[in-house]
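User: Could you check the structure of this?
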Amino acid sequence: MKNSDYRLIGSLNMYYEKHGEHKGTPLVLLHGGGSGINTTFGRVLPELAKTHWVIGIEQQGHGHTADIDRPFSLEQMADDTAELLTQLNISSANIFGFSNGGQVALQLAIRHPEKVQKLVLASAFYSRSGIIPELLEGWQKSITPDDMPNLLRDEFLSIAPEGANLQDQINKSQKMMQTFNELSTADIEGIDFPTLIINGDRDVVNPEHAVDMLRHMPNARLVILPGSHGAYIAELSTPKVTTNMPRITIEIINEFLTGLEL
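Assistant: Sure, the predicted structure tokens are below.
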């Protein structure tokens, strides 16, 4: 069962969805950059909702959440997420962040640790050193909607609030990634929540960076799966092929969240 609504977070009218009818610790989904709940998690969300009370959130200028007159920042997105959980009377939750959503999850763990029980960091990075050169170079280029994957562009145009400007969203996203504040090893060493790190072996985040995160996070486990960025959860812009990998990924996540030894 899906329920959706908005909450006013300062001047931001923030969209969220609830899936599933289960009790216990909520599982909060944080989408990737330039994406939304459906484009990041749509192909695995039904499976997650079979066993979890799932809350999907769409950040400023993404999906159904309209943009406002302020820059995008990972820190602000973490603060908005924490405030939304407070308004929903959720004292703490398990957090599953993909790509930029993984960076938001890291910021949430640092800035609002009381809101976190367990972390799933999928294709996340804490410094630019972990990103493949092609992506770093891409952030410096002029990007238009025509450069986006068709499915992501079409999804934005179909669900964004009236008056939303995709080029503005691209510009703000690009500026955020050009200027975001890197975390230090001391920062991530201070994150002692049980953490599952997931990475593709052909990801935009180097597998070596995922291993580096594992070495510095005191209570982390690591899974490296075959595939490109988001393929292991069948993110919408990845080819929809017949594969068991998303099912395997969800089984691994479920075992981690329910406390079973991986």
